[in-house]
Amino acid sequence: xxxxxxxxxxxxxxxxxxxxxxxxxxxxxxxxxxxxxxxxxxxxxxxxxxxxxxxxxxxxxxxxxxxxxxxxxxxxxxxxxxxxxxxxxxxxxxxxxxxxxxxxxxxxxxxxxxxxxxxxxxxxxxxxxxxxxxxxxxxxxxxxxxxxxxxxxxxxxxxxxxxxxxxxxxxxxxxxxxxxxxxxxxxxxxxxxxxxxxxxxxxxxxxxxxxxxxxxxxxxxxxxxxxxxxxxxxxxxxxxxxxxxxxxxxxxxxxxxxxxxxxxxxxxxxxxxxxx
Length: 276
Hints:
Elements: E1 12-15, E2 21-25, H1 36-43, E3 51-55, H2 71-86, E4 91-96, H3 98-109, E5 114-120, H4 131-142, H5 151-157, H6 163-170, E6 173-176, E7 179-182, H7 186-193, E8 218-223, H8 233-240, E9 244-249, H9 256-259, H10 261-272
Parallel strand pairs: 2-3, 2-4, 4-5, 5-8, 8-9
Antiparallel strand pairs: 1-3, 6-7
Domain AB hydrolase-1: 24-262
GO molecular function: hydrolase activity
Keywords: Hydrolase
């Protein structure tokens, strides 16, 4: 049983005032604002090129928390939020990593809300476990929140050696008065990671294979230095999304939009204004 917030609307931030509607979905441990610079560039200098909605997924940012993880419930929560924000009009939906999975499920379950789809460095398959994130989870759990005096103190105590990853993870740290807390639902992610090969976050539920294919245009972006998208994933991707076009960005890792923002903006602009 899940209790993901499919009734409550998710927290969002808007960028741009006119043009096509675009929703951005972040990855695990991220927030909608991670897409802020890309959204500003896509919406143009006066904000008239696109209306962007940066969504905090359930259990992330300022959005409600769940008791159990469910891709379907995440997608349904995004659907309810897009319906409310766009008055039922369709969006171009851009999703990275976990957000890419949610975007794909959204397109399959609620195709009327997705005019076109951009999936960034993820495939519609199970990845086995959250092994790559287990170290991050341990580092976050080990941070003594009750002892912290300042954000600088937290940065000094946090053992992650990569400054970019450290900044990314610590964006989830919030202070309420004198009390520090994790804004992300860390306990939920840790419980899921403890499932090992049974991780629901890493999985792609077989029931989704029974849904009709999404017939809108799809841009599938992969990082050339990432291992998340492999050549053999193409057949499965096209089974769900027959109008998929793969675009691999050389030199980019899993966080493609951070490694190659200019290329991402150019690709999004071209795709969003291409014929349906």
